[in-house]
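Reopening this ticket.

The earlier resolution said the output was attached, but the attachment link was broken on my side. Pasting everything inline this time so it's all in one place.
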Amino acid sequence: MRIVPHLPSRALQEAHEARVRVRVDAWPVLQSTAAATLAWLIATTVIGNAQPFFAPIAAVVALNVARGGRGSNAVRLLTGTGVGIVVAEIALWIGSVDTWTLAIATFTAMSIAVLIDGTRIVIAQAAGSAILTVAVGSPDAGFARLMDALVGAGVALVFSQILFPAEPIRLLRRAESAVLTELGEGLDYTARALIHYDDEYVTEALDNMREANERLAELGSTRRGTGHVARRSPLWWGRVAVIVRAGEDAGQLDLLGSSCFTLARMALAADRDDRPGLGPPVRDLAVTVAMLARAPGDRDVRRRAAHRAVSIVRMCDLSGTASTATVRTVVRMAATDVLLYTGVDVEAADDVERSAPGVLHVDDDADKRHFGRGPR
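Inline output:
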């Protein structure tokens, strides 16, 4: 009988994460490979550059960012390259090929890049282009690099904006789901800590809340990126309003994240005797948030989550000790933030105690409005 060695759980987790990375990144890697090959062919056959090494490199570098930011990355790469080459050519025209010329050209190119954009890729490309142009000492080298950059960035723009544009709503939903997953797990651990008096659950709850903050930062970047995609990719011009609205709705998760973090801190600091009674509403809130995490854009899921949030608000009376009343107030606040995220009108969310559950109106399914036409 073959004996299979036991792998530590950490090793299994790392192996699983590696498989996930390969599966997720396989398609972007194939796109970058195709873009690099096409850039090489264009530079050699159309431009006539015998050694167009920078054209495929530029294509890969431009596409080597998260979907939603590839078009901007291509423009920034081209900007940095142009700045570096122009500065280096002027430096060579004034001086000669020596250490001081290289230092002055590099410093000037990087400074201009900081003034123009300030992103790392612009600064790095400006410095690299200036250094290469001065080091080679030939005007032709700078021009050839600029042409390569134009080809590589152009191919990257075609791939990112026309052939394989990012799907803005899908990017948003993925980022929203990551935030909601961490918040739901954090609330679940908070509820367990309240019910079972287990400090290990306290640590897990706070760890998840901190992780949720990181996911919220990523969501902010995704929101900005999807707005750029909607305005710059021709395939999404007809749905800019829907995409912008979806980004604004996703911004409600900032409020929910703050409420959940405050809830975890206050609930875990509540009086020991009051904790068991606080567990059920926190657990219900955790279930509601986890349900949203599985399908954040589905209208039916949002409607069910909205009704659960109303029930949570109504079950959190403010009677009892000051500690209990304070925590339940924060629970109600978090449940109200869930309502706002699901698309319930602000006035209806503020008046949930007096309104009947059946009158809640949740916004149309943005995913269906977005994907009803156009590429998937």
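Reporter confirms the inline version is readable. Residues 28-163 form one domain. The first helix runs from residue 9 to 47.
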